Amino acid sequence: MLQHALVRLPGAALVNGIRENDLGKVKIKRAIQQHAAYREALETAGTRLDILEPDNRFPDGPFVEDTAVVLGEHIVITRPGDPRRRGEVKTVEKQVSGYFESVWHITEPGTVDGGDVLVLDRKMWIGVSCRTNRAGADQLGAIGHRLGFCVRLVDVRMGLHLKTFVGAPGPDVIWMHPAMADEPVFQDVEKHIVQPEEGYACNCRWINGWTIMASGFSGLETWCRDRGLKPIPVPMSEYRKLDGGISCLSVVW
Ligand code: CIR
To answer: How far apart are CA 121 and CA 138, in angstroms?
Structure first.
């Protein structure tokens, strides 16, 4: 059972977050409301929240997923790929390290964003992307291997992160964007290839039988119900403008 979730509240600086495309101005009031709905979803799914205060030095601070990777009873504090985000890890480490048996670190020259790491049972996939470099993926892979995980690296040739294209809506299945469909390292896991127009919703979070997912994707909500999963749709428009998906707003263990 997953018992805890770490989040960071959005601050006024969120509007200056890093983004690749201009999908419109971030509306801070709406972002705050959407974050509240997200926290409610985490609580519905049975987690107790550790809530970090906004830190306006780091506009992208609410995307806490990128700062830490949970591997069972252990946690890896990352070294985010974009230098503007490196300072976010300090408060995260301070808040969560007491929960874990051991705390590991990605060190220079390695970079890892948690958005590039998909963990399913004892398997982990690490995307080598514009944020996670090969040195970081190798460091994280070695840690995962030592902790008993089966590790695979994936080249992410487009978009931001691996989990822009894949996510786990359940304990034994992944949703995958068609652009990744031929990726051989996912051959031994059940996958549902989503429609291209559902691609954004690939990024989701499975917690204790609940699937937290972006709202507005009724086909995938139905898919969850048909499989006995309980979808919790959460509006994500403001975080999407900053290239963020559902999983990026929390670290769960
Ligand atoms: C960034 O570019 O770093 C943020 N604006 C978005 C990070 C999203 N992270 C994630 O999906 N794990």
So the answer is: 20
